[in-house]
Design goal:
By secondary structure, this protein is α+β, with helices and mostly antiparallel strands. It has 23 helices and ten strands.
C-alpha cells in the first residue's frame, strides 16, 4: 500500500514527550524527553508512531495509565514485546502521562508564592504541617519555603513591581488617580489607584499605587499630605489630570484648601525673574502650617447619584401624597429582608417558595435596595403572600405592589446610570454629560405616566441640576464628550454646536503650535549681501495654518464611532487622551479594598501594615506584571 504523505508524528497526542532531531526520507529521528538525563534516540516512520508507542510502554510504564475501556477490537493490535511475547498495543488516546514528579523546586516555590498572593493567604500557611505534607506529596518530595523566605520574596517582588510601575508611568503624559479611605477592625487604610490611556491601543490601563495605614484622625490635612506623598513617590505629581474621590467632607475640604489652579502659560521671553513680597515670605517662615499642592478634584459621579437616590428620593416620597403607601410598602419589604437576614430558616423558606435567595440590600448602596425590590416584585402575588405568611410579616396589598412596580420602572434609568458610570475599562469622563442629559430626558418622559411617583421624578431632576450643574458647564467635561467618537456634538442643541466646534478648533490649534518643529533645512552660507531676503511680512503657509481646523471639521463630520477611528485624527486623539484620562467615578479604588477582604477578617487581621499593602498591591497589579522573578 502506498505510504501517506501525512506526518503522523506531528498530529500525535504524545508528541510533546519527544524532540524531533532529523528527517530523512520517510523516517524521522527523535529524542525521548522522559529518558533524560540519558540520551535516547529513536527512529520512526512518518506514517506510523508504533515504535514510539512501544518505547513508552516498555520504558515508561510507571508514567502510563493504560485502559481498555471504550476501545474496540479493531483498535487493539498485537505487537511483539522485547521478550518475544505478544502484547496488546493500546491506542494513543488511551495513554495518559503523569509528569508531576518531574517538577522543579523553583516551580514549586513559584506556585506557592502565587497562591499566597492571588488568594491573599496568611504567611503562616507555609508553616502548617498539613500544607507541607500536601505540597511534598504532589510535588514528589519538594520542600516548602519557610515563612522568612516567603516574606523576603514578597518584599523583593514588591520592589520589582514598584520599579516597573514607576518606569511605566514615566512614559505616560496624563494620568488620573482615585482615592478613598477604608476602615475595618479598628484599622484605617488610605487607598489610591492610577489610570491612563495607552496611546497605541487606546486601552485604559490601571494600577494600584497604595493601600497605606492611616493612624489618628482622618482630617483634611492628613488626607492632603497622603495624596501628595503618594503622587511624589510614583513621580506623577505633574501628570495628574484629576483625583477622583467620593463626596466626603474631609476630601472635599482637602481639595478646596490645597487644590492648585492652572496658571497662565509662561511668556516666551520670560527671563525667570519673579518679584515677591518679602513681608509675606518672612511671615511664612514662622508659620508651621504645611502647604500641599493637590491636582484638580473630581467628585465621584456614581456616589453623587447614589446620594440623590438615597436622600432626595426618600425626602420627596415621604412628603408627597404617596407618603403613606411609600412608608408601608418599604416597611414591609424591610421586614422581609430583616427576617431572611437574621434567620436561616426564614431564608430557606423563601428559597423553597420562590426558588431564589433573598437579596438583602446594603445600607450605603441604593442600587442594592433597588435590585432587592426588583426581585420581590418579580414574584407572583401568591408567592409573596406565602412568603409573608411563612415569615410572619404583613402582606403586601395590591396598591402597594402597584407603587413598588412604578417605583422600579421610574427609577430604572437612575440605576442604569450608576452602573454605567462605575465602569473602568470603557468608561471615560466624556460619558458623564450624555449620561446626565439622557437620565433627565428619560425621567421627563416617565413623568407623563406617573401615578404615585411624580414628586419623586421632580425631586430627582432638580437634584441633578443642582449637583451636576458645575460639571455640565465645565470646559473639561465638554471637551471630553466632544472628542469621543461615540458622541461628538450630538448632545448639544443646534445653536451651540458651532460654538463648541470653535472651542475644539482653538484647543487643536494650540496643540499644533506646541508640536515638535519639523527638521531644519540646511541653508547655504553663500550670501550676495542683499537685504531683500531679510524682510518677510506675513509669509505663511495657508495649508499648514488650516490643518487643525480641517482635522476638527473632518472628525466632527465623521460617522465612525469606534475608538480606533481616533488614529486618523492625531490632534483629536491627543485632546481625547488629555480630557478623557479622568474617570467619572472612584469605583476602582473601592474594588482595590475588596481585594483585601480576606486579610482584614477577625481571624486574620494580624498581618503587618506593610505586608498587607505589599500583598494587596501585588495581587491588584499582577494583570500588568504576571511574571514572578526568582534568582
Amino acid at each position: 500500500m502506498a505510504s501517506s504523505t501525512k506526518n503522523a508524528f506531528t498530529g500525535w497526542k504524545f508528541r510533546h514527550c519527544f524532540v524531533s532531531k532529523a528527517e530523512k526520507g520517510n523516517n524521522i529521528t527523535v529524542q525521548c524527553k522522559l529518558c533524560l538525563p540519558s540520551v535516547k534516540m529513536l527512529s520512526s516512520s512518518k506514517d506510523s508512531t508504533s515504535n514510539l508507542k512501544k518505547h513508552l510502554q516498555r520504558k515508561h510504564s510507571r508514567h502510563l495509565l493504560l485502559t481498555k475501556e471504550d476501545t474496540s477490537q479493531s483498535e487493539m493490535n498485537p505487537v511483539e514485546s522485547e521478550h518475544g511475547q505478544e502484547t496488546l498495543r493500546v491506542p494513543h488516546k488511551q495513554l495518559k502521562l503523569d509528569l508531576g514528579q518531574r517538577i522543579s523546586q523553583t516551580a514549586v516555590s513559584t506556585l506557592i508564592l502565587e497562591f499566597v498572593i492571588d488568594d491573599v493567604q496568611s504567611f503562616s500557611l507555609v508553616e502548617q504541617p498539613s500544607f507541607k505534607k500536601l505540597i511534598e506529596g504532589i510535588s514528589g518530595g519538594k520542600t516548602v519555603m519557610c515563612r522568612k523566605t516567603l516574606v523576603q520574596r514578597i518584599e523583593k517582588e514588591f520592589a520589582v513591581m514598584k520599579e516597573t510601575l514607576i518606569a511605566t508611568l514615566q512614559k505616560v503624559t496624563n494620568v488620573c488617580t482615585t482615592a478613598d479611605l477604608w476602615t475595618a477592625h479598628n484599622r484605617s487604610f488610605f487607598g489610591m489607584t492610577c489610570h491612563w490611556i495607552e496611546e497605541e491601543t487606546m486601552e485604559r490601563k490601571s494600577a494600584a499605587l497604595a493601600c497605606a495605614r492611616v493612624k489618628g484622625r482622618h482630617t483634611f490635612d492628613v488626607l492632603a499630605a497622603k495624596i501628595c506623598e503618594i503622587h511624589a513617590e510614583y513621580k506623577v505629581q505633574h501628570k495628574v489630570r484629576a483625583t477622583v474621590t467620593d463626596n466626603g467632607s474631609n476630601f472635599v475640604k482637602a481639595f478646596r484648601e490645597f487644590e492648585t489652579t492652572e496658571e497662565a502659560a509662561p511668556d516666551e521671553f520670560d527671563d525667570g525673574i519673579r518679584f515677591m513680597d518679602m513681608d509675606a515670605v518672612l511671615e511664612m517662615e514662622g508659620d508651621e502650617e504645611l502647604h500641599f499642592f493637590l491636582p484638580p478634584h473630581q467628585r465621584c459621579a456614581a456616589h453623587t447619584l447614589n446620594l440623590i437616590a438615597t436622600n432626595e428620593v426618600d425626602k420627596a416620597a415621604s412628603k408627597g401624597p404617596s407618603r403613606k403607601v411609600y412608608r408601608s410598602a418599604m416597611g414591609k419589604c424591610a421586614a422581609i429582608w430583616n427576617k431572611a437576614h437574621r434567620s436561616s430558616a426564614a431564608a430557606e423558606a423563601v428559597e423553597d417558595i420562590a426558588n431564589m435567595k433573598v437579596c438583602v440590600p446594603c445600607v450605603t448602596r441604593w442600587s442594592s435596595e433597588y435590585m432587592a425590590i426588583s426581585k420581590l416584585i418579580g414574584l407572583t402575588q401568591d408567592q409573596l403572600d406565602d412568603i409573608c405568611g411563612r415569615l410572619g410579616v404583613s402582606r403586601l396589598h395590591p396598591h402597594e405592589m402597584t407603587f413598588l412596580k412604578e417605583y422600579v420602572a421610574v427609577l430604572q434609568p437612575l440605576a442604569q446610570s450608576i452602573d454605567l458610570l462605575q465602569g473602568e475599562k470603557k468608561c471615560y469622563l466624556g460619558f458623564l454629560i450624555p449620561t446626565i442629559l439622557s437620565l433627565k430626558s428619560k425621567l421627563s418622559d416617565k413623568l407623563l405616566h406617573a401615578t404615585y411617583t411624580a414628586n419623586i421624578i421632580t425631586a430627582v431632576t432638580e437634584a441633578l441640576d443642582s449637583r451636576f450643574g458645575t460639571v455640565l458647564s465645565s470646559h473639561e467635561a465638554k471637551m471630553a464628550t466632544t472628542t469621543m467618537p461615540k458622541f461628538r456634538l450630538c448632545w448639544l442643541s443646534p445653536e451651540k454646536k458651532e460654538e463648541m466646534c470653535k472651542t475644539v478648533i482653538q484647543e487643536a490649534t494650540s496643540l499644533e503650535s506646541k508640536a515638535p518643529p519639523a527638521a531644519e533645512v540646511n541653508i547655504s552660507s553663500e550670501n550676495d549681501g542683499s537685504d531683500e531676503e531679510f524682510f518677510v511680512f506675513g509669509k505663511t503657509n495657508r495649508a499648514d495654518k488650516s490643518t487643525a481646523e480641517e482635522e476638527v471639521r473632518r472628525f466632527l463630520d465623521d460617522s465612525v464611532k469606534t475608538m480606533d477611528s481616533l488614529h486618523a485624527f492625531p490632534l483629536i486623539k491627543r485632546l481625547f487622551m488629555k480630557y478623557n484620562t479622568t474617570l467619572p467615578s472612584s469605583a476602582p479604588v473601592e474594588r482595590l479594598f475588596s481585594y483585601g477582604g480576606n486579610v482584614l477578617t477577625s481571624s486574620r487581621n494580624r498581618m503587618s501594615d506593610d505586608h498587607m499593602e505589599q500583598v494587596l498591591l501585588l495581587r491588584y497589579n499582577r494583570k500588568f506584571y504576571p511574571k514572578l522573578y526568582f534568582d
